[in-house]
Amino acid sequence: MPKDQAAAKRDEHRDTVHPGMMPTAEVFESNAKSIAKDPAALRMWAVIAGICLLAWIIQSIS
Questions:
Q1: Within 10 Å of residue 10's Cβ, how many Cβ atoms?
Q2: CA separation, residue 42 to residues 26, 34, 49, 53, 56 (Å)
Q3: What's the rounded Cα separation, in Å, for the pair 18 and 21?
Q4: Spatial contact of 35 and 42, defined as CB atoms under 8 Å apart
Q5: Cα–Cα distance between 44 and 6 in angstroms, integer?
Q6: What pTM, to 2 d.p., does this model score?
Q7: Of 3, 20, 28, 33, which has the fewest CB atoms closer than 10 Å, so is most exposed?
Q8: C-beta neighbour count of 42 within 10 angstroms
Q9: Taking the alpha carbons of 4, 10, 14, 16 in that order, is the dihedral positive or negative?
Q10: C-alpha–C-alpha distance, residues 15 and 8, integer Å
């Protein structure tokens, strides 16, 4: 979700769930890692791609 959309969603939540309250210190940091820097995620995507390729090959043969 883009930052501006996330900010709008956060503001909407604050206005509906916590009306009249002023936000204190809000710090939003992403803990998402780049796939290139996360070997486990890279392996997972490689396995998914391999399974999709195998399924495509099997479907082409049939």
A1: 13
A2: 32, 9, 11, 16, 21
A3: 6
A4: yes
A5: 27
A6: 0.44
A7: 20
A8: 13
A9: positive
A10: 10
**Nearest by Cα to 13 from 26, 36, 55:** 26
CB 42 within 8 A of CB 36: yes
The two tokens of residue 3 are 């930052």
State residue 45's pLDDT score: 92
Beta-carbon count within 10 A of 35 CB: 12
CB neighbour list of residue 56: distance below 8 Å, 6 or more residues apart: none
pLDDT beyond 80 at 52: yes
Would you give the end-to-end CA distance of the chain in angstroms?
40
Q: Is pLDDT above 80 for 34?
A: no
Q: Mean pLDDT, the chain, as a whole number? A: 85
